[in-house]
Specification:
The structure is a single chain. The protein is α+β, with helices and mostly antiparallel strands. Strands 1, 4, 5, 6, 8, 12, 13, 15 and 17 form a nine-stranded mixed β-sheet that branches. Strands 18-19-20-22 form a four-stranded mixed β-sheet. A hairpin with a 5-residue loop joins strand 10 and strand 11. Helix 6 packs parallel to helix 8. About 0% of the residues have low confidence.
């Protein structure tokens, strides 16, 4: 008898205590949670032919170091009885949750939130999902959504700042993967779209931001567990009525309501449900580094900055320049590329492609164009976060995201990393498509 494809799903609260610093803006240590607007969750979906074969976990958090993501993937794999490589951990990128990305207050080795709240909740959700798997069918619906807008606003003097750029690239496609039981009863909805979850701005409240409104409305409508997976949001912010990329809780409710209407429209556009052809593929993605600068170039940049007030990106740049000098002083071999592990999940004509970056929207729009799948869904902040990944054409424009890409790493990625990562993932997409 042929085994049936099954899904198990469960969510657990991961809301931190009041007083927790809220991450997502440079001064996060001074912005502490005074209230809980809505709870944060660890959302787990377990997939397989009657037994677990793969796990997708979506966390209502901002970003996560690769080391912590690897640690969680290993624990999830052990819990589900599968290899860690068959686990995807992705984050919705709310800027109103606890920090899990940098050292110090959120060091994975010492942070009680990670050790006592986050990881136990994830493992409990995965365990319960794996123990309650049901045969399922899949329906896929899409719609065009204006929830997001390019946030790289170009001023009259040519500077690029965070705001709204009505002429810039963004991905308007919203996709709903809806899993139902053999009796057609809704089991699980996964909503995919790409936009920063920054509508609520720097309010001192814990919140999932605009995706929370969308998820809650879909759950209420369908009766099925629902969660969000963020797409290419590196250069996309919420389309707020203020014309800005951040606001307050009123703005989050405003755009969250629009997102809810769009998600429901995509859900109702599902043409039908059918048996699931599920497959996975694992491999490696090798990305090039920029040529390492000469000592003279580094010292010249440092000399130009010295004597001037430094904070934020400027301070980070100066620190990185010092670290690059230390690399040269060490006399060690300078790497020319970085290799990352990769895993793809495919469900019928849909494929999930994790990116450990906040990638610009053009990257996944292009990947979708080349892909043989009808629905190619890139996931940002997935299996770790290595900051922004701009498209090559945007690098000369500069701005916040580009500076993070070029100046905040000892070994920055090459300018054509967008072309390379598309090609590397397309190779794996074609492999999984052939299964």
């Amino acid at each position: 008898m042929k085994e049936k494809f099954c899904v198990g799903c469960c969510k657990k609260i991961i809301t931190p205590p009041l007083g927790t610093p809220l991450y997502g803006y440079p001064d996060y240590e001074n912005r502490k949670a005074e209230s809980v607007h809505d709870d944060l969750y660890a959302n787990a979906a377990v997939f397989g032919a009657e037994v677990p074969e793969a796990v997708l976990v979506s966390l209502d958090l901002c970003t996560m170091q690769a080391a912590l993501a690897d640690r969680i993937r290993a624990a999830v794999g052990e819990k589900a009885g599968i290899p860690a490589e068959q686990v995807i951990i992705c984050l919705i990128h709310t800027h109103s949750g606890p920090c899990t990305a940098v050292s110090g207050i959120c060091d994975p080795a010492t942070d009680p939130y990670i050790n006592e709240t986050l990881i136990p909740a994830i493992l409990k959700a995965v365990g319960e999902a794996a123990a309650d798997m049901h045969p399922t069918k899949l329906g896929i619906g899409t719609t065009q959504s204006l929830v997001g807008i390019n946030r790289r606003q170009i001023l009259a003097d040519g500077r690029t700042v965070l705001g709204q750029n009505p002429y810039g690239c963004f991905d308007p496609e919203m996709t709903v993967l809806a899993f139902v039981g053999e009796d057609d009863k809704p089991l699980l909805n996964i909503i995919h779209y790409g936009a920063h979850a920054t509508a609520s701005g720097k309010v001192p409240a814990i919140t999932r931001d605009w995706p929370g409104y969308m998820v809650d409305r879909m759950e209420a409508l369908t009766g099925a567990m629902t969660f969000f997976i963020n797409g290419a949001e590196g250069d996309v912010g919420p389309r707020l009525s203020s014309g800005r990329t951040t606001g307050d809780l009123t703005h989050a409710a405003e755009i969250g309501g629009v997102a809810a209407v769009d998600a429901i429209r995509a859900y109702r556009a599902i043409p039908g449900y059918r048996a699931v052809h599920f497959r996975t593929v694992t491999g490696q993605v090798t990305l090039p580094y920029r040529p390492f600068p000469r000592r003279e170039e580094i010292t010249a940049e440092m000399a130009e900055m010295e004597g001037k007030p430094m904070a934020g990106l400027d301070l980070r740049k100066y620190q990185v320049l010092k670290q690059r000098l230390a690399v040269l002083d060490s006399g060690g071999e300078i790497p020319v590329s970085r290799t990352l592990g990769q895993v793809l999940f495919a469900f019928n004509e849909a494929v999930l492609v994790p990116f450990p970056f906040e990638m610009f929207s053009e990257i996944t729009v292009r990947l979708r164009q080349y892909s043989p799948f009808g629905h190619t869904l890139g996931l940002s902040n997935a299996n770790g976060t290595l900051a922004y990944l701009p498209s090559k054409e945007q690098i000369p424009r500069g701005g916040y995201e580009v500076r993070k890409f070029t100046e905040s790493h000892i070994f920055p990625m090459a300018d054509n990393t967008d072309d390379v990562i598309i090609g590397e993932n397309l190779r794996l997409i074609e492999e999984i498509f052939a299964q």
